[in-house]
Amino acid sequence: MEMTFFNKAMQAMGGFAIQFNKNSFGLAPAQPLQVPAPLLPNTSADVSLLLNTMGAVQKMDPLTNLQVAVKNNVDVFYFSTVVPLHVFCTEDGMMDKRVFLATWKDIPAQNEVQYTIDNIVLSTDQVSQKLQNNNIFTIAKRNVDGQDMLYQSLKLTNGIWVLAEMKIQPGVTSFTLSLKSRAMDVASSVHQAYEAILHN
Predict the structure, then answer these.
(1) pLDDT in tens for each of the 200 residues of the chain?
(2) Residues 53 and 106 in one domain
(3) pTM of the predicted protein model
(4) Residue 140 bridge partners (DSSP)
(5) Which CATH number do you get for residue 36?
(6) Does residue 105 share a domain with residue 60?
(7) Domain range for residue 100?
């Protein structure tokens, strides 16, 4: 987690500590917060904080909402932030083709949602590479009636799998994304992750 601390108080700050509330993915600090002290008035410090997913879990709304408390010698400060879902995609999220097909058929039709992603000016291979760089893996690619079809999988740190089918028509900047999962609470956040990755 990257943070910048600004001291707008009239005195130096020190004794920093951080705490996260329970959250959907058990996100927690993996080390103490290290802010250079003293942080003098009208100065700032950039800080990187290692995180893990071994904290207490409680479903949040929105799903990736993170509530944070930072204390120092002056006061306790509270804020919340929405963590991009692709941060929680694991490196072992590439599903075997046969398992993908069986799982897609096994998940009921009511657990499928469809989204349109607009204004994408990338080739099918560029789309696949960008997503793979964020641990969303292309299992198979085929061409059906002039449209490229990408079949993809991702696995979240809490063990939830999401399967995706993406329809890409050459020369058209709108893609169709279909998502299937046994835990449909994640669908909207997965869609937002696709949007963020492909528009970045």
Answers:
(1) 999 999 999 999 999 999 999 999 999 999 999 999 999 999 999 999 999 999 999 999 999 999 999 999 999 999 999 999 999 999 999 999 999 999 999 999 999 999 999 999 999 999 999 999 999 999 999 999 999 999 999 999 999 999 999 999 988 999 999 999 999 999 999 999 999 999 99
(2) no
(3) 0.88
(4) 151
(5) 2.60.40.1150
(6) no
(7) 88-199
